[in-house]
Recover the amino acids of this structure.
């Protein structure tokens, strides 16, 4: 019974991730390997996924719903700096540096997340190195994109 349930869950996760742009460069069999190492988590509206400053050891993909990214301003108030919708990911820096979370993420409404933990990521790298390297490259590409976007916003702010 457990195997049938986990197989069904793996297929559900496989269907979810196969529609996400993050996974566009993966072949079906690579997605199947990755899906076996992912888990699902439901987040309620206003539920905290993680808080700014917490040590990070997983990244997430939004299967359904949306979340708000909140930043502490001068220790006095929280400001929503962005939102994350279906198909998007967050927490990628934790896959690289295991450092502290740079912001708090809270459910804007009921949300379903697909989670890749650092331990599962390391296992993929060890057992399926080609797939693991592609996964690491996808994370690096995404972080590079975010850095370029942040640099562009900073340049725009400095120009005004």
């Amino acid at each position: 019974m457990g195997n049938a349930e986990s197989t069904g869950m793996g297929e559900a996760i496989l269907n979810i991730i196969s529609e996400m742009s993050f996974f566009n460069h993966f072949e079906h069999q690579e997605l199947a390997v990755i899906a076996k190492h992912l888990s699902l988590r439901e987040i309620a509206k206003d539920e905290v996924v993680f808080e700014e400053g917490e040590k990070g050891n997983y990244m997430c993909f939004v299967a359904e719903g949306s979340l708000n990214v909140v930043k502490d301003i001068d220790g006095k108030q929280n400001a929503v700096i962005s939102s994350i919708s279906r198909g998007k990911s967050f927490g990628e820096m934790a896959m690289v540096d295991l450092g502290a979370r740079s912001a708090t993420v809270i459910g804007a409404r009921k949300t379903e997340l697909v989670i890749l933990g650092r331990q599962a990521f390391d296992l993929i790298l060890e057992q399926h190195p080609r797939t693991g390297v592609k996964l690491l490259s996808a994370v690096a590409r995404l972080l590079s994109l975010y850095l370029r976007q942040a640099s562009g916003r900073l340049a725009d702010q400095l120009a005004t």
In short: The chain is about 45% helix and 30% strand.
